[in-house]
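User: Good morning. I'm curious how adenosine-5'-diphosphate would be positioned relative to this chain. Could you predict the structure with it bound?
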Amino acid sequence: MSGVRLEQLTKIYRDPQRGGEVTVLDRIDLTVAEGEFLVLVGPSGCGKSTLLRLIAGLDQPTQGTIWVGDRPVNGLPPKARDIAMVFQSYALYPHLTVYDNLAFGLRRSLQMKGSSLLPAPLEATLSRWTRPLPKSLQLSFARERAIHQRVLSIAQMLQIDSLLWRYPKQLSGGQKQRVALGRAMARNPQVFLMDEPLSNLDAKLRTETRSQIVQLQQQLGVTTLYVTHDQTEAMTMGDRIVVLNQGKIQQIAAPLELYERPANRFVAEFIGSPPMNFVAVTVTAAGLEVAGQPLPLTSQQQTQLAPYRNQTLWLGIRPEHVHLGSANDPTTIAVTVILVETLGHETGLTVQLAHDPLAWRVRLSGQHPIRRGDRLHLHPDPAHLHFFDLESGQRLL
Ligand code: ADP
Ligand code: MG
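Assistant: Good morning! Here's the predicted structure, ligand included:
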C-alpha cells in the first residue's frame, strides 16, 4: 500500500473557442495518507475528474509532481502506476461473464494470457492421471486457483457471488457497478481512484453500495481517493474531505470539523443540507444588528468581535441551530413563514427576514402547527454562529 502526494499540481487547458487558457487545477498540494479514505468534493466542473485522471496517468499535468509512495509517477503510463480507477459509467466487458470481468484485471496484473489457462474443473480431472503433470500446467493451475479464490472472495464481499455466470446485459445498474468496483478491487492495486461511482444508482442502492464501499476499503486498507459532488457521500464516507472549487483547495478537514468550522463561505454553503443561512449583519456595541433588529451576543463573542465594531460581516447559521422563541425574548428575530414542509420527524420552514432579501431555512424537530404567512420569533443559538468576511468570505469567528 502507498500514499499519494501531489505537489503544486497544475492543469491548464487551451480553450480555442474562448481564445485563451483555462486553469482547471491551480497549484494543488495534497497528501493522501497510506490506507486513508479521502473524499474529494466540489461542484460540477471544479476539476475533480481532471485531478483523478492526472493521478491515473490518463492525462498529463501542466506542472507539478505526483508521488505514489516514494516514487514520482509523472511520465509513467497508466499501467505502470498500479492504480485502479472506477468511473461513473460501468465500462464492463460486454462479452465476458461477471466472473471473467472480475478475473480479467487480475490475470493481466499477473501478466498472464487468460486464454492460455485451463478452466479450473479440468485440474481435478487431470490430477487423476497417474503420471505427474508438466510443470507449465501445474503452474497455470496454481495461478488459476489463486485467481479463482480471489474472484470468489471479492464477489462474496460485494454480494455478487450468485451472478458470476451472467453477462453484463443481464445485470441491473447497481449490480453492474458492484462488478466494476469488484474488478478494480480484485487487482489489489496500491491506490483506488473512484469518480462518482454511485451517481447512476437510485437512492436506496446508493446508500447500500456506499456502506459496502466503506467496509471494503476498511477491510482491504487500500489508499482511496473518492470523488463525489454529493455532500452526504462526502460526510459519511471519508476519513477526511477535500473541498475543491474553481481549481483550488478550499479546505481539507475531517467531516465534522468541516461542518462545524468551515474555512470560508463557500465551504459553509456547500456542506450541509439545507445549506447554512446567511445574513449581512453590523457589529454594534451590544451585539449585532440583524435585518434592522438588535440581537445580543455573549460577552465572549462581543470581545471577539470588538475589532469589527461598526463593520458589516456575513453571519452564518445552520437550519438546525435556529429555534422557536417568543415575542418578548430579546434574543429572537421576527420572521414571516413562506413555506412549511412537514416530514413527520421534523418540520422544515422557509422564512423571510424583515428588511432583508435573503430567505432562511429552519429545521425544527418534531411537528409544529405552523402555517404559511405566520409571523414567528426565532432564536439563533449563540453557540453556533459563524462569521465571515463580507468580501473575501474567509471565516473570522
Ligand atoms: P468535474 O469532474 O469537477 O465536474 P472536470 O475535471 O471534468 O470537472 O472539468 C473541469 C473543467 O475542465 C471543466 O470546465 C471542463 O470543461 C474542463 N475540461 C476538462 N477536460 C478538458 C479538455 N480535454 N479540454 C478542455 N477543457 C477541459
Ligand atoms: Mg467529473
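The first helix runs from residue 48 to 56. The CA atoms of residues 285 and 309 lie 7 Å apart.
Let me know if you'd like a different ligand tried.
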